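Incident log, support desk, overnight shift.

02:14 A customer reports that sequence design results differ from what the structure should imply. Their input is reproduced verbatim below. On-call engineer (initials T.W.) acknowledged and began investigating.
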């Protein structure tokens, strides 16, 4: 009798973590490595948030809390949704988890039965399909390639919906592409969803505050109030507030779903870290002025990376609307041979050879469900980005 569960065979380790670990091993061995794989801001958590955590420790707020979040934080989340998204929720419609990933996973575990389908536009965040598989559902990936600026079209969404569709996972701005849907583009998708009342919407808004130029962010339930009762609006403090390690995510949705998620969390992790919850409270209620320089830095880096990658032979790099990723197409590199003698058969070979020959770590596109591409996280210093892009240019120039 096998010791490990068959469930585990359905999933694979995160490719982004694997690349990060590979780069770390090379660094530890003394190699000159620039890691562009991790989706983590290089900025420090703002001081007022750190001070709030210290104050919570000094005040003895280190005990168990309510399973899915302290009342004060739930109230702040309700205020955030009202203030920034025009969405009205009550505290019993809010759940707080150990990072955004847990809230998504909890919702899928609580709702999916064998045979239930979940529509996921590709390229996608690497965890979406595996979480669906772990929950017993069937991921249905729908390509949204460079020809549509990595955005799902209404016709493609319509064609993917079946009587078995349970959820549509929506992510804007997107990981891995940074693509953001305009109000009109999102309205076109919600119009399709309104024709299919059995389909629920899981909106991952984690990169809401990281948008550039004149782009304006909208969430599905904000655009179409008719979807309010079947939408789980997910967010967190990890990206915009530079709090990845604090592990606080949250979501808002119908009471019955939120209650079910609380029941699951009560028997799995129980409450998120009490100290991190008080820090998140300060993040949401405190000054938001630091978001402007954060955005300005990311926009400057985006422009730098897009310009330099487009100067590399064989690479086409669209300019995204938000997040801190670009997703270049490398069709012009496939079939060529590197200066070190490796045939570039696909984007995985490209990424591994790039790391081996130049010390630049990126994540190959197949991990995100759309090839031939790779993802660059530009959440690192301008200097590191310039050097990395210069090495990528040199690598591409050496392909024959």
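02:41 Re-run completed on a clean worker. Output:
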């Amino acid at each position: 009798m096998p010791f490990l569960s068959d469930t585990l065979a359905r999933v694979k380790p995160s490719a982004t973590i694997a690349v990060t670990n590979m780069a770390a091993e090379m660094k530890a061995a003394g190699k000159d490595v620039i890691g562009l794989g991790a989706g983590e801001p290089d900025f420090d958590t703002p001081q007022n948030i750190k001070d709030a955590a210290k104050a919570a420790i000094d005040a003895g707020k280190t005990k168990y809390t309510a399973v899915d979040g302290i009342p004060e934080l739930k109230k702040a989340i309700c205020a955030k949704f009202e203030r920034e998204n025009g969405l009205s929720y009550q505290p019993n419609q809010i759940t707080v988890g150990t990072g955004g990933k847990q809230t998504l996973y909890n919702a899928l575990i609580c709702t999916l039965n064998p045979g239930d389908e979940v529509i996921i536009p590709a390229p996608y965040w690497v965890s979406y399909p595996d979480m669906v598989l772990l929950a017993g559902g069937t991921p249905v990936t729908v390509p949204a390639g460079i020809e549509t600026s990595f955005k799902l079209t209404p016709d493609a969404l319509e064609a993917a919906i079946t009587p078995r569709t349970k959820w549509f996972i929506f992510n804007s701005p997107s990981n891995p592409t940074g693509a953001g849907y305009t109000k009109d583009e999102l309205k076109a998708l919600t119009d399709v969803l309104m024709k299919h009342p059995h389909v629920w919407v899981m909106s991952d808004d984690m990169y809401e505050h990281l948008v550039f130029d004149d782009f304006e962010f909208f969430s599905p339930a904000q655009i179409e109030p008719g979807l309010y009762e079947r939408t789980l609006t997910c967010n967190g403090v990890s990206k915009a507030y530079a709090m990845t390690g604090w592990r606080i995510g949250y979501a808002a949705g119908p009471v019955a779903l939120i209650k079910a998620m609380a029941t699951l969390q009560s028997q799995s992790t129980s409450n998120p870290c009490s100290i991190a919850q008080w820090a998140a409270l300060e993040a949401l209620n405190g000054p938001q002025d630091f978001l402007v320089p954060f955005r300005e830095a990311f926009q400057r880096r985006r422009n730098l990376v897009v310009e330099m990658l487009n100067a590399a032979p064989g690479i086409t790099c669209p300019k995204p609307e938000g997040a801190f990723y670009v997703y270049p197409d490398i069709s012009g590199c496939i079939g060529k041979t590197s200066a070190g003698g490796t045939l570039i058969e696909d984007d995985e070979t490209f990424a591994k050879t790039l790391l081996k020959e130049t010390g630049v770590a990126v994540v190959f596109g197949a991990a995100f469900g759309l090839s031939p591409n790779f993802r660059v996280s530009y959440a690192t210093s301008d200097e590191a980005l310039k050097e990395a892009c210069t090495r990528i240019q040199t690598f591409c120039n050496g392909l024959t």
